[in-house]
Amino acid sequence: MPYLPLQVDLRGRAVLVTGGATGIGRAICLGMARCGASVVVGYHTSGNAAEELAAAIQERGGTATAVQADVTNEAEVQGLVSAAKDRFGRLDILVANAGGPTEQSPTVELTAEQWDNGLAVNCRSVFLCVKHAIGVLEDGTGRIVVNSSISARTGGGAGNLSYAASKAAVSNMVRQWARELAGRSITVNAIAPGVIRTRIHERWTPPETYRKIVQEQIPLRRDGLPEDCVGAVLLLASDDGSYITGQVIEINGGLLMP
User: Fold this and answer.
1) Model pLDDT for residues 181-204, shown as the tens digit of each residue
2) Catalytic residue among 3, 163, 210, 243, which?
3) How much of the chain, in percent, has pLDDT values that exceed 90?
4) 0.85 cut: is pTM over it?
5) In the β-sheet with 93-96, what is the strand arrangement from edge to edge?
């Protein structure tokens, strides 16, 4: 089925989305392609899903390729960014989306290795992707969007210390980068999803707890879908979002309000 008419015009732009094969990342890749961007689907272990997504985008008339990398490994991140630019001749947009909970342990049981792993997956990965993208992003049209979380402000719930801490760090890194790159007219922002229906919640949140949050705590009385995160990312990646930088946009159905 062909794409609907453009809502945001990203034709001529190239985007790299880490964690792009599944969940929120997948929805972002599809949204970017629908708006005309050439898409690099970054993935670590979801190779089949990444290749299927790239093929689906191409079948609809878009341009996409899948590239594997462990975004906690600096050499692999450098290779990923280089591959993205080599594939399309430029890189305009980085969406550092990869991450997720890595453990559920109370502080007294949390090992130093678990702590380090949580920060690597959710904070080091973002740092490395931004570090190596900065040198190749286009001045003026360069856009960086990272995935933070509602947990950056609320805490991640029992046993998710490293996840919440790393997401809070990411939200503050965005502000630092926004100042650092403003002279090149490269904007840096974050989205902070709340309860989004992904495999992360399927794995980490008990069904009864999930239902209770949706029914009793979210004013809109529904959980979010990955597609609910796409509009904010498209705005931040587009010319229409060129005066928005250093911001964290909450996407949570009213669960948390400023």
Assistant:
1) 999 999 999 999 999 998 877 776
2) 163
3) 87
4) yes
5) 63-68, 38-43, 14-17, 93-96, 143-147, 187-193, 248-251
Q: Write the single-letter amino acid at 241.
A: G
The token duo for 119 is: 């920060």
43 tagged catalytic: no
Residue 108, amino acid: V
Spatial contact of 15 and 23, defined as CB atoms under 8 Å apart: no
Is-contact 39 216, C-beta < 8 A? no
Q: For 7-50, where are the E strands, in sequence order?
A: 14-17, 38-43
CA distance 233 to 89: 23
pLDDT tens digits, one per residue of 61-114: 999 999 999 999 999 999 999 999 999 999 999 999 999 988 888 999 999 999
Place of tokens 């080091």: 124
